[in-house]
Amino acid sequence: MNLHSSPRRRRRIASGAAFATAGVLVALSVPSTAVAAEGDTTIDIIDVNDFHGRIESEGTAVDKAAGAAKLAGVVQSYREANPNTIFASVGDNVGASTFTSLIQQDIPTIDALNAMDLDVSAIGNHELDKGQDDLTGRIEDRADWPYVSANIVEEGTTDPAFEPYSIVEKGGVKVGFIGATTEDLIPGLVSPGGVEGLAMAPIVSQVNKYAEQLTDGVDTNGEADVLVLLVHEGAPTNALADATGSGVFGAITSGVSSKVSAIVSAHTHATYNHSIAGPDGTKRPVIQTGSYGVNYGHLQLTVDADKQLTGITSEVESVNGETRVPADPTSVDAVADIVTAAKAVADVEGSKKLGEITGDLRRAVQSDRTTENRGGESVLGNSIAEVQRSATERNGSQVAFMNPGGLRTDMLYASSGAGDPDGTVTYKEAALVQPFANTLVTEDMTGQQIKDALEQQWQPDGLPRPFLKLGVSDGFAYTYDPAKGRGERITGMTLDGEPIALDDTLKVTVNSFLSTGGDNFAAFATGTNIADSGQVDLQAQVDYFLANPTVTPPSDQRAVGATVTPTPEGGFRPGDEITVDLSSLVFSTDDPAAAGTVSVSVGDVELATAEIDPTITDTNDEQGRATLTFAVPTTESSADAATVRSAARAAATTDEPLVVTLPGGQTITLAVTIPLAAAVDPTDPTEPTDPTDPTEPADPGAGNGDGPGAGSDPGAGTGTGTDLAGDPSDSTNAGGDLAYTGADLTVPGIAAGLLLLAGTTALVAVRRKRARTDASVGTD
């Protein structure tokens, strides 16, 4: 579309002059009723945020969505009590909706809000899920209210791309609503391809610009008597400390001009009612209602005859707990009819069975074992990634990645619908998991580009979610070192057990959101031969169930954290102590009592075992920790000791990789190898004999210092160009080099001593033999 320097739309912005002032602000942290003096005007502002199409009632509990009809009753009751009532939203009215609204692209939600006479809404990130053309076309064309945002700007300018504000006049008082949208919107929260030509300007400076403009008497579109900020950004929790200080939201509450009398926030789904000082030290309400229409916010403004704000109170109340019943149910009935019709459509489409699952496909959880953790590896994320790889396999796809924010609910074994047996997955249940209708995109990516994408799971500093765990498809696995710095954490990658080098090229599938760098995964925008398959993610899930009527949840860990004792120069030797710190060994949704033990072995020798600590650490993927410490086995401790004829002859060793075994049998092979005494076949006449064993026939070439084989005798068996184990290719390893390193096994340039995860099966490691020149094993 053609971009221009002026806002795309201007609706409901009155013209004319009016007195404007910041007023005397009295913000109370508890609700109170202002007593209006003669000539005063009382204005009630009712608001919601992050409604996300929750038009159906989820029950009567205070923590459940009350539904659009009940919300309509609350709004109508305020209007009946005070005609000077404004209904506002702080964005995300649509998107990530429940199936009843989603199946009709949120048209029922828009219609319901129209029936409630929504006056104004900020633009949330989900309003742009399908791009700017969808917002300015389909959504705004159907909506009867204006969408506002002052800081979504035309790229390269500070000119707003949308309406920056809207003025609503009630009782002769003009209330100016300035909109703002989280600065993470571009490029992090929406598909960059859908917002091409747009950029984000700082919230504070943009809001302050319009606060000044609306109160200094120079704006030709009419001034405001009172200003309210509708900002689709918020504090991460309900704690006052998170709404103040140096954080993203604290900068807003402290930096937005005191000409703004109240800040109504959104985006983080937190619930709070704070009183926080602005730049001039005057306190003002700062509120957020949670999400899904569970609660509503209420600001009550008192404005005197001179259009001065003389009082303001704030409260957040439960919609389900509200006892208000409107005298005129007309609007309530209209909304109820919209919901009923939408539900009828959804019931028909949603009841169709797609397939069955044998267990829960769940997202990761935080330490409360309830709240979603987008930083944790999840069964659901890995499963959906495999669905998308499978859907594009005919396009050559080898690996798929799934962003955790695209998974909006769990796929549970227990049936949620009447008449459906446990394990049944319906169209509705699948649709609620992926409600964004992203298409699947394939691209060629090098090992370096894939590594870069995995490194970007650690998000830029200062974001509320510091880590976003990608779901990965079957067969792909990687290890990381949590102790390393940014850009250095990924230590190895494999596909079907084979190492991936940095210069390898793989065909990768991601959704259209990720393909253009969504969620700050810029590496996914750097591939070549990028092709949109045209397949919608939900349809891919439908097709997968058709091909696989019964789906078993994946149980293997696709990513394991590992820090290993640094490999000494020349490699590990018998008696050396090694410590392996492991993490991310279990899913956070697993039963912690079933975490079990992990072991490490070499060859057939088990070296150490440890109990797995399943404690969840919030926001990341480190749950399932264990530390394994052991000594490199000497000849005497080797499982082959019974067949070893002497310590001298035990210089024939093989370098064996360390193998970690998880409780379910999944194995992880280390790129670190240690020497293990070679097994000897006593029936093999070519094997050397032990001259100290009188039962063994003498070997004239062995040489013991007393006979013809001593000293420089060519039969001494050292330095001949063939190692003692009989492998001529390994003569250069006689000095004790590692059999293989992280460089030659996986990614060039990554040091040895790091794990390589083999996915559902053990990595088939190349085992090279190494000769030792020591006179005896275990001495140095």
Give a short summary of the structure.
By secondary structure, this protein is an alpha/beta fold. The protein folds into three domains: 27-214 and 225-345, 4-Layer Sandwich (Purple Acid Phosphatase, chain A, domain 2); 352-475 and 498-551, Alpha-Beta Complex (5'-nucleotidase,  domain 2), CATH 3.90.780; 559-684 and 717-771. The relative contact order is 0.10.
Q: List segments where confidence is low: pLDDT < 50 over at least 5 consecutive residues.
A: 1-34, 638-651, 687-780
Radius of gyration: 33 Å
Q: How would you name the CATH homologous superfamily of the largest domain?
A: Metallo-dependent phosphatases
What does the main sheet amount to?
Answer: 7 strands, mixed
Protein name: Bifunctional UDP-sugar hydrolase/5'-nucleotidase
GO molecular function: hydrolase activity
Domain 5'-Nucleotidase C-terminal: 369-525
Biased composition (Gly residues): 702-720
SSE layout and pairings?
Elements: E1 27-28, E2 41-48, H1 68-81, E3 85-89, H2 99-102, H3 107-115, E4 120-122, H4 132-142, E5 147-148, E6 152-154, E7 165-170, E8 173-181, H5 185-189, E9 198-200, H6 203-215, E10 226-232, H7 248-255, E11 260-265, E12 271-277, E13 283-289, E14 295-303, E15 309-318, H8 330-350, E16 353-357, H9 379-391, E17 399-402, E18 424-426, H10 427-433, E19 439-446, H11 447-455, E20 471-472, E21 476-480, E22 490-495, E23 498-499, E24 505-511, H12 512-515, E25 528-536, H13 537-547, E26 550-551, E27 559-564, E28 577-583, E29 597-602, E30 605-611, E31 626-631, E32 652-661, E33 667-677, H14 742-745, E34 755-757, E35 769-771
Helix pairs in contact: 1-8, 3-8, 8-10, 9-13
